[in-house]
Design goal:
This protein has 147 residues and is mainly α. It has 2 domains: 1-92; 97-147, no CATH class. The chain has helices spanning 2-59, 64-91, 130-140, 143-146, and strands at residues 94-96, 103-105.
Amino acid sequence: MGIFEDVIINAKSFVGTVGKKAGEVVDSSKLKLAAADLRSEINRKYQILGRLSFEEMSIGKDFSKPKKELFDQIGELKTNLDSLNDMIASAAQKIKCDSCGCYNVKGAIFCNNCGEKLAYPEDASEHMSPDDVIDFTEDNFDDDDLL
């Protein structure tokens, strides 16, 4: 009975881990869908803003008040989108470059896009130890890649 009980316990643990990972994937997917919706809404507002600008130039009517409202709405939507993108990146273990805004793999020293040194919080738990760097390198690169 001892082996059978161990198998049951291990199976329950595995199912719990798989369930947790599935939940994380669903949460990440929901965040990505919300970000896509925000991008669509921003694009729709840009189209309206462009139409108003065209009409303003065509017929000479002043649309500065509705254009200002759209401008403010777009700014708010972009702020929300930036927050969502930060949450998505955090869930994916990525860090944002302070210089260009590109997301990089957590643990990277320099930005993959602009080459600037990435800033990490001063919390020592956020930094990779030399052993972690060696393990990461061994797990993700062949000897030929490192030459």
